[in-house]
Amino acid sequence: MAINTINQTTKTTTSQDQVFNPNSQLDKDAFLQLFIKQLEMQDPTNPMDTDKMLDETAQLTTLEMNQNMQSTLDKLANQLSTTQELNTINAIGKMADTGERYLNVTDSDTTKDFDLYFGDDISSGEVIIKNKQGDIIRTFPLEAHTKGVLSFDWDLKDDNGNRVPSDTYEVTAEYTSPDGTQHQTALGAYPIESIKFENGEVYAKLGSNYVPFSQIKEIYDWQG
Fold this sequence. Notes:
- This protein is of the alpha+beta class.
- It has a domain at about 95-190: Immunoglobulin-like, CATH 2.60.40.4070.
- It is built from two helices and twelve strands; from the N terminus they run H-H-E-E-E-E-E-E-E-E-E-E-E-E.
- It has helices at about 30-40, 50-90; strands at about 95, 100-105, 110-120, 125-130, 135-140, 150-155, 170-175, 180-185, 190-200, 200-205, 210, 220.
- The strands form three sheets. A five-stranded antiparallel β-sheet has the order 11-10-9-1-12, with no helix packed on it. Strands 2, 4, 5, 7 and 8 form a five-stranded antiparallel β-sheet that branches.
- Strand 10 and strand 11 (about 210) form a beta hairpin.
- The longest helix has about 40 residues, at about 50-90.
């Protein structure tokens, strides 16, 4: 008795009608393709009812509206960021005040360097250092100089030559310009020389240092 052996090979085919969405996100285009494919694959004898079709199209409309809204919000955020950067750059040349009028002196300090801005030419004057009680403990005479940022080096001694205690000290200056006008200036008020963007933070160059823009309390035009 002959035995006939039949080898059956099952062949699996991949449909060419798949909807490919590499980002695995159902955007409006992918949703529309799925909806069309659903209509193509439906049973002609039992088509999708009208209510279900309207529900599907309503979902498509909602999805498209949400995507359009997100796109609009993204553009608005970019515009606000650009506007903020432009406004920051426009501050160059204006006066910035950090409100920091005091130097902090610790036991380990031997000197303290600081900058003061003079908005007018100096004929004469003096730098004044006071303690927290408002007492003048040290003065520096000012010689004739053109306007701008001047640097000072305080040896942490008072007018009697004694080393001052560790504490905070207010720094101001009073001076006379060549036309005889009296002026005052103080630590913490400088013109903004430049702006630097670094790691998402904005810095302004005040005197010899870059200061986070968030630390600036006031920006104004120099009145002279």
